[in-house]
Amino acid sequence: MSHTRSPAEANPGLAVRELNFHYGAKTALDSVSFDVEPGTFCALLGPNGAGKSTLVSLLTRLLVAPDGEISVAGYDLRRTPRKALAKLGVVFQQPALDMGLTVRQNMTYFAALHGLPRSAVPTRIDAALDRLNMRERAGERVRDLNGGHRRRMELARALMHDPTVLLLDEPTVGLDAAARQSITDHVHDLAAQGLCILWATHLTDEVRDDDQLLVLHRGQILARGQTGDLRGDHTLSNWFLSQTEVPA
Ligand SMILES: Nc1ncnc2c1ncn2[C@@H]1O[C@H](COP(=O)(O)OP(=O)(O)OP(=O)(O)O)[C@@H](O)[C@H]1O
Question: Where is the ABC transporter domain (predicted)?
Answer without folding.
Answer: 14-243
